[in-house]
Amino acid sequence: MLGLTIRWSLEGAPEGAEEELASFVAETSHARFTGMAGLRWKTWRMVRGEWFEGSYVFATSEAREEFQRTFTEGAAESPGSRMIGSPPILVEACDVVAVAEGWEGFTAAPRC
Fold it and tell me: Where residue 108 falls among pLDDT bands split at 50, 70, 90?
């Protein structure tokens, strides 16, 4: 599976950036990526005070390459970069080796 990781450092981010990011994901970003052509899924992850990350899995290498190219061109002006006050520290294509769904199942929700 064709992954992509985009990570920002939260070290030195403005106070309240973590909550602003979580609200943005719930209110805007989740809807933007739900049903996006070429995307299998996206997960948003955060360790408060350390980093915020988008993890993507794409259906085709073309979809991943196009998204990565487009994102990278405007990374410094992206909503995450504006909220955090700096561009991503990592934009990295990767392979997702496997995914297992546990007994409790999968919940596709903007906030859990």
Answer: confident
Q: What is the DSSP string of the chain?
A: -EEEEEEEE-TTPPTTHHHHHHHHIIIIIHHHHTT-TTEEEEEEEEETTTEEEEEEEESSHHHHHHHHHHHHHTGGGSHHHHHHTS--SEEEEEE-------TT-----S--
CATH architecture of 2-95: 2-Layer Sandwich (3.30)
Proportion of the chain above pLDDT 90, given as a percent: 90
Give residue limits of the domains in the chain.
Answer: 2-95
Higher pLDDT, 87 or 107: 87
